[in-house]
């Protein structure tokens, strides 16, 4: 039986399948629910719900290639990974981008590096110190 959800985040996406697939793979969050308007990803008491931007709004959103980072938001999702290097390869394969490794820093005993998803949303990955 999975752990009960004790925290969650909601992320709006123009391309629901692309963004939910990205975070499912990067954060190792299995899909627990998939409906036409949202996908729920969940593990270890945390749930990320990716919600489709309504079509009338989605047509006004331009996603460039590569995406422009959306850094003008006060919230950043953070995920813990086993290896920043391995995660960076996966991020690139799935349409996102990590900052160069030399821009990483130490925080609370973890090596930390920011990146962005295929729609430009900034996130952070943390690798626990070994």
From TrEMBL:
Q: Which residues does UniProt call coiled coil? A: none
* Entry protein name: VOC family protein
Query: In this protein, which residues make up the domain named Glyoxalase-like?
Result: 10-125
User: One of this protein's Pfam families, by short name?
Assistant: Glyoxalase_6
